[in-house]
Structures are given as C-alpha cells and as structure tokens.
Design goal:
Blueprint (H helix, E strand, L loop, with lengths): L3 H46 L3 H47 L1 H14 L4 H23 L11 H25 L5 H24 L3 H30 L1
Length: 240
Amino acid sequence: MTDVRALVHRFDQDTGTHASMLNKLRAAVLGANDGVISTAGLVMGVAGATTNTAALATAGIAGLVAGALSMAVGEYVSVSAQRDSERALLAKEEHELRTMPEEELEELTRLLQEKGMSDAVAREAARELTAHDALAAHADIELRLDPDDLTSPTHAAVSSLIAFALGALIPLLAMLLSPPSTRVVVTVVAVLLALFLTGFLSARAGDAPVARAIVRNVIGGVLAMGITFAIGTLVGTQIG
C-alpha cells in the first residue's frame, strides 16, 4: 500500500523548502543591494563636496555601520512580529484541533483534495496524518508553517546586517582605495557592476524578468549617485 504520509510530504515539504531557500537568498541579495546603493549615494555626495580622504572614510564607515544596524533592528522587529503572528496561528489551530477534531479532519481532507488527491486517498491521508501529528499536518498543509522551524528574528537580523555591510563595502573601498583623480569613476563602475549582479540575482530568486530587474536596479543606483554627487558639489561650493 502507498505510504500516504510520504505522498503528502512530497506535495508540500519539497515546495515549501525550495520557496524558503529562495526567499532567504532574495532577502540577502536585497540587503546587499541596499548597502550598495545607500553607501554609494553617501560617499558620492561627500566626494562632490570634498576630496579629503579622511572625510570620505568617516562618512562612509559611519554610513555603513548606521545602515547595517538600522537594517538589523528593522529586520528583528519585523520578523519578531511575524513570529508572534505565526505562534498565534499555531495556538488557534491547536485549540481548534482540541475543540472540533471532526471539523478539522474534514478541513484537512478538503485541502488534500484541492491538491489533486482523490476523495478516498485524501480521507485516508488525512486520517493517517491526524493520527501521526495533527498540528504538524495542519500547520504544513493549511498554514504552510513548520512548528519546529519558525523564522528566527536573531538570524534574520544578523543576516541583514552582514548582507548590508558586504554590499556597502563595495562603494566604500572603491572610493577609498582609488587615486583621488579617478575615485569617482572607479566607484561608479564598481557600483554599476554590483547593481548588475544584485539585480540579476534578485530577479532569478524571485522568478522575475532578469533584464527589467537589472535595468531598474542600475537606473536607481545611477540616479542615487548622480543626485547626491550634485547636491554634495553644490553644498561644498556654497560652504567653500
């Protein structure tokens, strides 16, 4: 006889794991992209106002640290709220399983039928899954959650901090390690290459059109650098 638990596992678990990995990759890429654009805009703005390397280093490092910490705190708060919501959903499901088990069994059967199972197979699978671990079955198939693997706010915060910092290092190092006469050009080239890569990776992770994502990303970065450089030049001229 076919093991219906293995069948249900193939229906949901493989797809869920794949989607989860893609979401994590996409979040890391977008965090790095934020670091590239925000830090590039900052150092280009300062470069428009002054050629002083110490000023550029101070502004760039401060922007990297502040941006990375801001990303980490924001991600921690956001994911904490998501985790609280997931726990509330699991608590509600656990209550319903205790107070209305027959209705929940019918609901699980219907969900399996919607996935393409025949009535007989869906009912057999629902009964076996309920007997094995009812909460895990409903969490997986109905809520698409794993009670033993909820999103970690700490992991999300650390990942965002690292991704942002790595992205921010590209324009910062390009600006600081280049000769004063070419640092702006080198930084622009380095940033455009980085934005091309992050645009490509984010599109692939999100299954979106690659060319459109790259063009949008590059144009956004060019605008950010151009506007801040112009403002920095204007302010530096007026102050000077």
